[in-house]
Automatic annotation (TrEMBL):
<keyword id="KW-0299">Galactose metabolism</keyword>
<dbReference type="Pfam" id="PF16363">
    <property type="entry name" value="GDP_Man_Dehyd"/>
</dbReference>
<dbReference type="InterPro" id="IPR016040">
    <property type="entry name" value="NAD(P)-bd_dom"/>
</dbReference>
<comment type="similarity">
    <text>Belongs to the NAD(P)-dependent epimerase/dehydratase family.</text>
</comment>
<keyword id="KW-0413">Isomerase</keyword>
<dbReference type="InterPro" id="IPR036291">
    <property type="entry name" value="NAD(P)-bd_dom_sf"/>
</dbReference>
<dbReference type="InterPro" id="IPR005886">
    <property type="entry name" value="UDP_G4E"/>
</dbReference>
<protein>
    <recommendedName>
        <fullName>UDP-glucose 4-epimerase</fullName>
        <ecNumber>5.1.3.2</ecNumber>
    </recommendedName>
</protein>
<comment type="pathway">
    <text>Carbohydrate metabolism; galactose metabolism.</text>
</comment>
<dbReference type="GO" id="GO:0006012">
    <property type="term" value="P:galactose metabolic process"/>
</dbReference>
<dbReference type="GO" id="GO:0003978">
    <property type="term" value="F:UDP-glucose 4-epimerase activity"/>
</dbReference>
<keyword id="KW-0119">Carbohydrate metabolism</keyword>
<feature type="domain" description="NAD(P)-binding">
    <location>
        <begin position="63"/>
        <end position="388"/>
    </location>
</feature>
<keyword id="KW-0520">NAD</keyword>
């Protein structure tokens, strides 16, 4: 029976074996429903088709690389709430164990039992092997990677080693243990400076820096692997600009050092850790001269991963497919400052500066493909993003650390 898991409708049944008397949910091929029904009746067990949600299908086990990081922690909360069992591997290069403890606190003691954490580095194949050798994973969500554009320009080898070698090790181990479903964290950076907006998934791709090149190469690698071995199912999620935090204010983004990105920077100005925000570029051909991006609430992004997993489990023809995760709306830097001031009641002093080299003028997503094929659409707007970012900042002015 189990050979047909992960295809077709959901079936909930009382275990067929007296040794395990609890209820089970599994996904099965339509053709074997009749067989299953007959067997259940014969053993006087209950049998209900489509009686439970996908997320509650028994203990689908997901490996989340980089799960202690910003997007990882928010996604893990949602995965646990949806009934998945989650294993995190993270080397804590850009995160702290406290973030994982807060995830446990948020989901409560029962769901926490379904979460385990391993400190490990994807560059060491042995660290990945250890996990796969002791348990089966249905799919992997692969967040682990370095993401600072400026640092990648100064030290490209670190980026190629970490992002490329780490991911290749992961694919090798997944193949060895026959786990061939992956959701990969790609980025809108693969569109470079797009010639048209909104960005559509079939646009020509080009990277503008070594970090962007790692994402582009990894998209190509994913496509080649899937082309060669058609049983792989890989979803490439191209995130636009993730911001905001969990509504509880218990988890959020906590970059080490001076933030590179707009919202963490604004947040640190608001709590008094930095004196003012440098606004890079005031002469762009945009509504107010500042650059435009598609900011997306991290909880929407987290839900996008659940939608992508569902797609992987449900669609044997998915192959290797890319989806944009954005809102489809562009917001300028100055508009973002105003929205944050409104949400926080704090004045954000700004300094108008020259453009930041390598920055695109205006980027936002076409969201049609994700809406149509993943059934996912962002719920939150800029006001909610700023509200939740401020709630996190106000409650944790020094992030996960205590004030130094
Ligand atoms: N945040 C963004 O603006 C953004 C936008 C587009 C794409 N992405 C991509 O999404 C992913 C997650 O981003 P994030 O914002 O949560 O970043 P993050 O730095 O907060 O999280 C990444 C996590 O991966 C871990 N990690 C890095 N290298 C590792 C390795 N070799 N082995 C094990 N763990 C490792 C880090 O310690 C960290 O906890 C990254 O791949 C990033 O490139 C992020
Ligand atoms: O202190 C700052 C920081 C940023 N900006 C501007 O704000 C905009 C957004 O910048 P940022 O938050 O750094 O995002 P992006 O440059 O759009 O890049 C982010 O979004 C990409 C697409 O998802 C990811 O690939 C990158 O890793 C991630 O850094 C840009 O115009 C910046 O010049 C400022 O004016 N002042």
């Amino acid at each position: 029976m189990t050979k047909n898991i992960n295809i077709g409708p959901l079936v909930r049944l009382q275990s067929l074996t007296p040794r395990s008397p609890w209820h089970q949910c599994l996904r099965t091929n339509t053709n074997c429903l009749h067989e299953l029904e007959t067997e259940c009746k014969r053993k006087n067990r209950s049998f209900l088709v489509g009686s439970c949600e996908m997320g509650s299908s028994v203990e689908q086990s997901i490996l989340v690389t980089g799960g202690a990081g910003f997007i990882g922690t928010h996604t893990v909360v949602q995965l646990l709430k949806e009934g998945f069992k989650v294993s995190i591997i993270d080397n804590l290069d850009n995160s702290v164990i406290e973030a994982v403890e807060r995830v446990r606190e948020l989901v409560g003691p029962d769901l926490s039992k379904k979460l385990d954490f391993t400190e490990g580095d994807l560059r060491n194949k042995g660290d990945i092997e250890k996990l796969f050798s002791k348990q089966r994973f249905d799919a992997v969500i692969h967040f682990a990677g370095l993401k600072a554009v400026g640092e990648s320009v100064v030290n490209p080898r670190r980026y190629f080693d970490n992002n490329l070698v780490g991911t290749i090790n992961l694919y090798e181990t997944m193949a060895k243990y026959n786990c061939k479903m992956m959701v990969f964290s790609s980025s809108a950076t693969v569109y470079g400076q797009p010639e048209k907006i909104p960005c559509m998934e079939d646009f020509e791709l080009k990277a503008m820096n070594p970090y962007g090149r790692t994402k582009l190469f990894l998209e190509e690698i994913a496509k080649d692997i899937q082309r060669a071995e058609s049983e792989w199912r890989i979803v490439l999620l191209r995130y636009f600009n993730p911001v905001g935090a969990h509504e509880s204010g218990r988890i959020g983004e906590d970059p080490k050092g001076i933030p590179n990105n707009l919202m963490p920077y604004i947040q640190q100005v608001a709590v008094g850790r930095l004196p003012e925000l440098n606004v890079y570029g005031t002469d762009y051909p945009t509504k107010d001269g500042s650059a435009v991006r598609d900011y997306i609430h991290v909880m929407d992004l987290a839900d996008g991963h659940i939608a992508a997993l569902r797609k992987l489990f449900d669609d044997p023809k998915i192959g290797c497919t890319a989806y944009n995760l954005g809102t489809g709306r562009g917001t300028s830097v100055l508009e973002m400052v105003t929205a944050f001031e409104k949400a926080s009641g704090k004045k954000i002093p700004i300094k108008l500066c020259a453009r930041r080299p390598g920055d695109a003028t205006e980027v936002y997503a076409s969201t049609e493909k994700a809406e149509k094929e993943l059934g996912w659409k962002a719920k939150y707007g800029v006001d909610e993003m700023c509200r939740d970012q401020w709630n996190w900042a106000n409650n944790n002015p020094w992030g996960y650390q205590k004030k130094p």
